[in-house]
Fold:
Amino acid sequence: SDTLRTYREFEKNVHATLGEELRVSAENGFNKLVGLGILLMATILVYIYLMMGLYISVMKSVVSLASSAKRVARGDLESPIRCDSSDEMRIIGDSMEGMRQQLQVREKELREISLIDGLTGLRNRRYFDEALLGHFATAKRQRSFIALVLIDLDF
Structure:
């Protein structure tokens, strides 16, 4: 009976010790799980923060380039196209600036062609009309007179 009592006390101590170890092990596992959850949430928040920054940066560049494209479409070839980005959007902005410059040169060439007679190489009626309007405006500003003499030569 003493042996049985000693065995039961031993068994009770073993169960108590094992139970305590299991409880501590479960708490440690739970704490690790909570730590991993917090780490995962922090990682997700950092990812969202970085993606929002990237989105805002890209949108600024897109809005700037779209505004420049609209200016060019309206005929404003004097204002340079700038993109204050240092990524791929800068490459697109530089390409658009090159196109704007080429359009500006071509427009100037076409304007010159439209003012010169292709057969004789002399200034044409369009040039005359524009020059006359310019001289009228100058005379009006300076409050002076303008004289015009027309001669029609036929061969």
